[in-house]
Write a structure and sequence with these properties.
about 750 residues; alpha/beta; 10-stranded mixed β-sheet; 23 helices; 22 strands; elongated; disordered C terminus; binds 6-O-phosphono-beta-D-fructofuranose
């Protein structure tokens, strides 16, 4: 209807204006026709009565003349008739002639442009015709016509004109609406067909007429453009597996160097008495990147932190890993105690870590720490240059330990593609601005070709920070920062876990896991367990989690002795006082709460503060009724995703902090505010009593998401973006003007 109105309204307005302009013209024309008719009539009457009137005048019989005039004036249009022998004489006229009107006046009016008798109620038109006799050679016959019929007919004409235009408007509107609707449907059908990419030019689809072909072509080009813009290439992939990644590498980045840089190494060699054992660190970063590196090969440069690491590397500090099925190269970088203390414990973990996490721990900034941070970043840049076999490696820089590294790599290898992924949150500009080396850090990060965060919120914070603190051009449409004649794309890549997880993690059936874990902790078979898996870090909300358990038992004493939170806590960053204090507080809270509910047969909290290998962690995930993630602030939190991926029985409930990146992707979890103890306790109770069917529904949806958005997709998206960027860069380099600035993502920086 609105479409029809769009056509009909202007049409009706145009017709209205036309009617408005035409009506007075037509009225004028008809008046002129009537007047001409009356003039002809006047001539006719004058000619017809000339002779008899002359006779009567000659005879001087005025009463017969008047009778003669009365007979003529019986015509309804003739109001009065008079004879004027000369202007000076009184007229010889019918009685209908208004009294007092003289011949001079009548003749003057008849000769004037406006021939109407003034003061008459009806409209009286005066026409004079010569009527010469011997006695009065300048005699005149005066005919006064009643022309009121003219205004009557004028009104009628206007009415008919009005009806005519209304009818015309209706007919034209009707025809327009019908044609518009038919054409619209045809066009829409044609467009839909075209958008679906089906037979575009088939007759009856709206695009068969040759005059529409240019539109069809334009539309198809537009659709292609929009599709390219809105469908990222990773969506073309049906399932993301290690093979998909390998394909991307072979297809898009064949023979290219792929180098990963992180602080934490994926395999740590540790001396255990005389034997050397391999440890897998409790690190989300490693969890995510390791399967990717297995698929991609390439080189992983990391800090060699194990006390037996040096014993197993070759002369160039390299070792092929995993040791049993080598898939990629691990290159270790050695740090002195002093370097590690300043760069890792100091600036990275006492400065940047609390700066980026809103967990109410003040950052500590010390100049000697930052000096070490600078120095170690340079050491890693040298390692990248040494490992690169080409001048244009693809370097994946990981995390807040290496904020300066992207710029150092760019300076040493200008053709490198540097993708930096910041695994922790990025704070708002005001919070970040307190860092004394804020500009240097931002400058370092803007050496990246792409800078990735888990959430759009963190991308926004970063871009706002740059906008506020640096002389850089920020484009919020393409989400790029132009700085020092170089573009950095700021992008969201939500990290994820391996899917499907390695079969060895599922080797033990769920029932067996349940039984073994309960037996190991001396719990009965029907004892309810919530699992917590974290590093002993103050950002993880472990104390808040314990207080929620305490509240649950206060409010639902039926759980006392029947439920326990099993907290796996990997020791971490123990050289930092804040972490040591945190561990002390955590242990004290466990003791206090367990003491308070010591009446039950089993303690409400079981703390396992030691390192657990992935298989053990998965066993606990599969044994628990609930997984409780209560981080106060977390970039993503892979524990939440691992719990979901561990539950192939589609049972178990995830209670998840709203302050994790994962909460944005897993709304089927019970989302809680870890600071709200009552809410967390209520969520725990709901989780523990949730019917199996509801658990299955929620878990099924979450597993669907993780299956679709697994870690291969996370890495694949970055690799695809890097490959696209490299291709565009090559195009620019080959351009006749030889611009060095890559076209990324859509336009050139000025
Ligand atoms: O969350 C940031 C992060 O680097 C994670 O990727 C990882 O899980 C954790 O910190 C490990 O910390 P660290 O290497 O200091 O033990």
């Amino acid at each position: 209807m609105r479409l029809s109105l769009r056509f009909v309204l202007p049409l009706l307005i145009a017709l209205g204006l036309l009617a408005y302009a035409v009506t007075p013209l037509i009225e004028k024309l008809t008046v002129r026709w009537f007047e001409r008719d009356l003039e002809l009539r006047a001539n006719l009457i004058a000619n017809t009565i000339n002779e008899p009137l002359s006779e009567l005048l000659r005879a001087g019989d005025t009463s017969r003349v008047q009778k003669f005039f009365v007979r003529i004036a019986q015509d309804e249009r003739i109001f009065a008739i008079a004879y004027c022998a000369s202007p000076a004489e009184a007229p010889l006229a019918t009685e209908s002639l208004p009294g007092g009107v003289q011949c001079a006046q009548l003749e003057a009016l008849a000769d004037s442009a406006n021939q109407y008798l003034p003061g008459s109620t009806g409209q009286l038109l005066i026409l004079a015709r010569p009527m010469a006799t011997e006695a009065a050679p300048s005699g005149k016959l005066i005919l006064i016509h009643d022309v009121t019929f003219m205004s009557r007919r004028g009104a009628e004409t206007r009415r008919y004109l009005f009806y005519f235009f209304v009818a015309l408007g209706l007919v034209v509107s009707l025809i327009t609406v019908v044609i518009a609707q038919l054409s619209w449907r045809g066009w829409m059908h044609g467009l839909r067909t075209m958008a679906r990419g089906e037979g575009l030019m088939r007759p009856s689809q709206g695009f068969d007429s040759p005059e529409l072909l240019p539109i069809a072509n334009d539309l198809r080009a537009l659709v292609r453009e929009i599709q390219a813009e809105h469908r990222s290439r990773d969506e073309e992939q049906v399932a993301w597996t290690p093979d998909t990644l390998r394909d991307i590498l072979h297809r898009e980045l064949a023979n290219q160097d792929v180098i990963v840089v992180s602080n934490r190494e994926p395999y740590i060699h540790v001396r255990n008495d005389d034997a050397i054992v391999i440890q897998r660190p409790a690190s989300g970063l490693v969890t995510a990147l390791e399967p990717v590196m297995r698929a991609c090969s390439g080189t992983w440069i990391a800090h060699g932190s194990g006390n037996a690491d040096r014993d197993v590397v070759d002369a160039r500090d390299r070792i092929n890993v995993p040791v049993d099925h080598p898939a990629y190269m691990l290159r270790r970088v050695w740090l002195t105690r002093e370097e590690e203390a300043g760069y890792y414990y100091g600036f990275a973990n006492e400065g940047l870590w609390p700066l980026c996490h809103i967990a109410h721990v003040r950052p500590t900034f010390r100049t000697p720490d930052f000096d070490q941070y600078r120095k170690v970043n340079k050491r890693f840049a040298e390692a990248v240059v040494n490992e690169a076999t080409r001048p244009d490696p693809l370097v994946l820089v990981q995390d807040y330990h290496f904020a300066l590294l992207p710029r150092l790599i760019r300076d040493a290898l200008p053709d490198a593609t540097v993708i930096t992924f910041w695994h922790i949150p990025w704070p708002n500009p005001e919070a970040f601005a307190i860092c004394p080396w804020r500009d240097e850090l931002l400058d370092g990060l803007l050496g990246s070709s792409i800078l990735g965060f888990h959430t759009q919120f963190h991308c926004n914070n970063f871009v706002d920070t740059v906008d506020r603190l640096l002389e850089a051009r920020v484009d919020r449409e393409t989400f790029t920062v132009s700085y020092r004649r170089k573009l950095t794309a700021v992008k969201r890549y939500p990290i994820s876990v391996d899917w499907p997880p390695s079969p060895e993690l599922f080797a033990k059936p769920v029932d067996q896991c349940r039984a073994d874990v309960r037996m190991r902790h001396g719990l009965p078979a029907d004892h309810a367990i919530a699992i917590g898996v974290d590093r002993l870090d103050y950002t993880k909300g472990i104390e808040e989690r314990f207080r929620a358990v305490e509240r649950l038992l206060e409010q639902h004493p039926e759980w006392v002795g029947r439920f326990s939170l099993l907290q796996i806590a990997a020791p971490t960053r123990a050289s930092i006082e804040e972490y040591r204090n945190y561990e002390t507080h955590v242990r004290a809270e466990v003791a206090r709460i367990n003491e308070r509910f010591s009446g039950g047969l089993h303690p409400p909290i079981i703390l396992e503060a030691r390192h657990h290998e992935p298989a053990e962690v998965y066993e606990h995930f599969r044994a628990a009724e609930v997984c409780f993630v209560s981080s106060l602030h977390d970039g993503m939190n892979l524990v939440a995703k691992e719990f979901v991926s561990a539950r192939d029985d589609e049972q178990g409930v995830l209670v998840l902090s709203q302050f994790t990146g994962a909460a944005r992707e897993l709304p089927e979890a019970l989302i809680v505010n870890p600071y709200d103890t009552d809410q967390c306790a209520a969520a725990l109770n709901i989780a523990l009593t949730m019917p199996s069917r509801a658990q299955r529904q929620r878990m099924g949806l979450m597993r669907g998401l993780i299956k679709e958005f697994n870690v291969y997709r996370w890495a694949g998206r970055m690799l695809i973006d890097a490959a696209t960027m490299r291709r565009r860069g090559q195009l620019v380099d080959r351009s006749p003007h030889g611009h060095r600035m890559p076209l990324w993502p859509e336009r050139r920086a000025e």
